[in-house]
Amino acid sequence: MEIVKLLSEKSNLTEDQISRILVNGSRKYKVYLIPKRSHGNRVIAHPAKKLKLLQKDFLKIVDFPYHECSMAYEKGTGIKKNAFAHSKNEFLLKMDLAEFFNSITPTIFWSAFSKYFNITPNHIDSYFVNNLIFWLKEGDKAVLSVGAPSSPKISNFCMFQFDEIVFQYCNESFITYTRYADDMTFSTNVREILFTIPSFVESLLFQLFGTAIAINYSKTVFSSKAHNRHVTGVTITNEGALSLGRKRKRYIKHLTHQFVTGVIDKENIAHLRGLLAFSNDIEPSFLSTLDRKYGPGITTKIMEIK
Known about the structure:
Oligomer: single chain
Number of strands: 11
Order of helices and strands: HHEEHHEHHHEEHHEEHEEEEHHHH
Low-confidence stretches: none
Number of helices: 14
Strand content: 15-25%
Strand order of the largest sheet: 6-7-3-8
Radius of gyration: 22 Å
Mean pLDDT: 95
């Protein structure tokens, strides 16, 4: 593969310069914490500037495949498409993969690489690629980091075989399956069939990855039309339409009122702009509701603020 040579051809750096960057590449990260929505903190490991550029170049060199049921990080995918896939089904199951990026190791990556590309890299290439895309976490364990631009596509690639097996299993049982990063969603119109899924997924994860990738059972949720159905932050109504949900709508109205009355701060203006963009994608009619309530063109005015 001669990865250093290929990276040199893609970048403005010499092979020697790239080699020196990659020798300790897995340690060249700025690590910080951000609060999670529920509790605790999320560890972000952001690569140094030159390493980050090389990670982006690597994705241009190798065309990593992803499964059609993978709904994150790829062109034409997203939260809306993920939710829509389940919108016509009555019964829903949501499962979560624990510490997803930090669970993916060089062993998992190279196993997928050899299966898909039918190539066994030499020691030099594997050494440099490992230092390119993996972060040395505490205890010198190499994992994908939350913060590296290469991690999302690499994670989808590493889950390709898993996604294919789950997809085929579900397809034979009239179950719709999608995965948005660490969030797996299953839906069907066949009563009680989803109860077989958790044990199947657990067994398959162990078969493919050993104990490296595991289910976060605290986030396993069964739902149906009798209850609120939410898929990756999008509400599915009983009519099968996608909605922002009452709680989010009230919050957006609250921020819009603050904007109109002039008491909103700059940080929340940026937040409101993001929420309005999300609303326009998921439920565009809600913007018309805001315009009627707070004045014609108010949403456009907010969106145009730089």
